Amino acid sequence: MATILLIGFMGSGKTTVGKQLAEYLHQPHLDLDAWIEAHSGQSIKQIFTDHGETFFRDLESEALSAAIRQEGVLSTGGGTPVRSVNRKLLASSGSPVIFLQTSPEVIVNRLKNDASRPLLQSMDNDQFIELYQKRKTYYQQSADIIVDTDQKSPSEIAHEILIQI
Ligand code: S3P
């Protein structure tokens, strides 16, 4: 069973903080996007381009149900809690679900030059804010603990999580 589940928007630091937590806990770090890429043999970007988002979401749900049963710290993808089947898996896992809450300004700043996130390409600022607000509801619904990450280093965030779980 996963020890800690990290959720949050793209660019909120789920992977970086997850690695840090795994190091502190001497446990494996699992990253859902990396899991999907390893099992499909394609990059996330390629999967979106070749097969579309619905196909990616199916792979993501399959990957979540397998990865959540492994021991370690699991960093999910930004869209993982959007599907209700995934939210149910998160809720029934028995593992603490941590929402890394990052402001839209910080996210835009971090991701403005990142070409690897297919969902953000061709999205204007209004569309981004709309997606952010919609997602935030799902993250809040799924979270046992919410950690604000703006102005904090990955190790500060990891420590904040460790004292709360
Ligand atoms: C997505 C987030 C990405 C990746 C895919 C879709 C999303 O993961 O799963 O590009 O819908 O927010 P990160 O949150 O790790 O960037």
Automatic annotation (TrEMBL):
Substrate binds at D33, R57, G78, R135. Catalyzes the specific phosphorylation of the 3-hydroxyl group of shikimic acid using ATP as a cosubstrate. Pathway: Metabolic intermediate biosynthesis; chorismate biosynthesis; chorismate from D-erythrose 4-phosphate and phosphoenolpyruvate: step 5/7. Mg(2+) binds at T15. Belongs to the shikimate kinase family. The keyword Transferase applies. Monomer. It comes from Sporolactobacillus spathodeae. One of its GO terms (molecular function) is shikimate kinase activity. This is Shikimate kinase. It holds the Pfam family SKI.
